[in-house]
Structures are given as structure tokens and as C-alpha cells.
Design a protein that fits this description.
With 274 residues, this protein is an alpha/beta fold. It is built from seven helices and 13 strands. It folds into two domains: 79 residues, Ubiquitin-like (UB roll), CATH 3.10.20.310; 133 residues, Rossmann fold. It has a ten-stranded mixed beta sheet with strand order 6-5-4-7-8-9-10-11-12-13, with helices on one face. Strand 2 and strand 3 form a beta hairpin.
Length: 274
Amino acid sequence: MARPHARSNGLIGLPRAGVSRFWRVAVRLSAVAILGLAVGRGLVLGGHLDYEGSPWPKLPGLVAGLAGYAADDIRIDGLTNHEPENLLAAIGVTPGGSLVGFDAALARRTLENLDWVREARVQRIYPNRLEVSVIERQPFAIWQRGQSYYAIDASAVAMSGIPSGRLAGLPLVTGEGAPAAAAELINQLEVTPGIRSHFRAAARVGMRRWTLYLDNGVTVLLPERGWERALATVEDLNGKQQLLAKGIVSIDLRLADRIAVAVAKPVGEQAAVE
């Protein structure tokens, strides 16, 4: 007579009593684990583990270090105006911290979204090396907008966090449209050294032309068109006649066929230089 087959319980070799005991233990362990996670989450969200000297924030790094995945070898290249700590904070890395789950591509995009980074390269080399290379935007001028001042680079990108010492001596530009036109003006001034040596600031007028302010008190009003030739003319006159050293208040080059020069004394008089 054939023996009936016992219904399978999925756990080979365990009698029914053992299976029942197994599930009771599994349920209890699961409940303890869920309770532990809930308590841990509450402690973290409540800030109870975030106090000075607390070892808990370092735990992931310690575990990663034991497994050989801690950020123990960090190499940063290309920084000139910012500290390495600022760069690492932006990508969420701390020296000795965990590199488990670190996304190098995401870190690169994060860095290139910073206003002071032009290009970035991030490479994770297993198990514990992180290499970061950046090309910073370099301050080219100071842009005044109302009561606020911004460092801008040659492509008119405004930057934050530049140390004040790196901004000393940079020309000041102001007015609507000034950042976009500043590089062309300042580069042109480099070929007129007599004017460049006195240049302090420039105001963009009506998004069409520039007015220059020199350190000897002279104001130079440039035309909308042909301003490069106008600068060269002033440079030539200054070289031949020391024009900028004659007590002049302003030089108006807005008319194509003449230069209007206002002198300090007598007040209000103008002399025309044909």
C-alpha cells in the first residue's frame, strides 16, 4: 500500500514543530530589526547623535575604512582661489569618509555647476583614491550692480567666494550690459598703455558706449562706434603732448570729427582740439 505524500512546507528536513518555531523566531527578529531602524531614524532626525565629539557620524567612514573603501588618498589639482575643503564639501566627501556609492560623474556635474568652476574632472580609483582636477574661472573685473559688487571672468560669468586679496587692482565696470562688453574694452586698453596705467573704472552707457574714469580725475567719453580708434587717438596725443597731465577734466570723443576737452580752470570753458 502506497504511503500518502506529506505536504511540503518548503523547509526540507524540519518537522512541523520546528517550522513553527522557525517562523516565530523570524517574525520576532524582523520586528526587532524594524523597531531598531525606527529608533535609529528617530535619533538621527532628532539630532540626538549629532553632537560635538559624537562617534556616530564617523561610523560609515570607519566601516568603509575597515573594508578598504575610505577616502584616504585624495588628490586635488587646479585650485588657485578656493580651499580644498570647499571643493570637497560641494561633492559631499570628507577625508577618511566613506566612498561607498560615490558617483564620480555626478560629482563632476556638481562641480561644473559652481559659478567659479569652468571645467572639472573627477576620477574614483578603487579602493580608496579620489582624484579631482578643476579649472577655475579667473577674476577679470569687478562689476558693480547697484550697491552690490561681483567678480566676473572674461566671459562675463559672475563668481562668488573669491578672496578679497585676489580682487585688488581689478578694474571696476558698471551699467547695464557692462559684464558682456568688459573683456573687449579691457583687452583694447592693453594696447594703449598710457591710458591703461591711469584706468580705474568704466560705465556702460545705454548698453551702447563706454565712459572711462581715470585715476587723475579725467573722464573719457568714448563714442558708440569707432571707440577703438578714439582710444588710439587719445593715446597718441598723450604720448606727444602729455594730454592727461594738463589739468584736463574730461575728453569727449563722441563726435567723429573732433575732440572736446574740458579743463579744470577756468571752470566751464572748453577747448576744441581739431
